Amino acid sequence: MALHxxxxxxxxxxxxxxxxxxxxxxxxxxxxxxNDYGQPGRDGSxxxxxxxxxxxxxxxxxxxxxxTAHLGDVADFETARGLVELAVDTYGALDxxxxxxxxxxxxxxxxxxxxxxxxxxxxxxxxHFNTTRFAAAHWRERSKATGAPVYGRIVNTSSEAFLAGxxxxxxxxxxxxxxxxxxxxxxxxxGKYGVTANAICPxxxxxxxxxxxxxxxxxxEGELDALAPEHVSPxxxxxxxxxxxxxxxxxxxxxxxxxxxxxxxxxxxxxxxxKDVFTYEELDAALTPYFEGRAPHENFAATEIxxxxxx
Length: 311
Prior knowledge:
α4 packs parallel to α6. The chain is built from 10 helices and 8 strands. It has an 8-stranded mixed beta sheet, with helices on both faces. It is an alpha/beta fold and 311 residues long. The protein has a single domain, classed as Rossmann fold, CATH 3.40.50.720. Helix content is 42%, strand content 14%.
């Protein structure tokens, strides 16, 4: 039990990926704070309910593990503070933070309202920041008190939408790109304290992805479902564990039977001028031929992700 004695917080853990991740961390021995706001709509609509988080916590306890349910909106700064404090007060410390909570409000960019933009950025990006901020402060204080590194793991949930664009999700794609930036910045800041921060881009059939993966047939009984959330959770368990101590600031694509490490952006081509500054005419002569023959809607990232999906 690689996580025996450790304490984990999993946000958005009442259903789907979060639930599978909470169960996996508990299976590995961790005490789990199961956070969920419990709203029935994937767009964040409906009345908040403690039932989803309570059900997952009960499932963990029935299997012999330790779990506590937490009802709360992690996009609220003080709620995030209270979530970290609950872990420390209940189990003595916080060791693992898995940020998974999110909502969808899809719309083309020319039709999106300010509220649809703000709400998705608030839950995904601000929600990830809020919990990270208080977990990071907890680990820094522990490290300074002992004069030694501590055990800390952050696993954030991004998406391939930040790479490929996702035409009908400008708010979601922007939030998921921001989460990658938050992850790499956090990894750089907290590494000296013994804390790692990594991001996953999962492919899984949940209520959040029913529009994306709904066309994929659900396998019959006894057949492998490559889009089951349970195929994502083992990577989360690994990144939360001691074996991943040197894995920091990385982004992974993960689904049934595949884990892909995403490389940092690299320079595809470089254009230089013999002068101090390019002129318009020189840029036209250098750049226009490079993009000749490409339709405006084509981009390398989208093609690459499509190839990954087909494989």
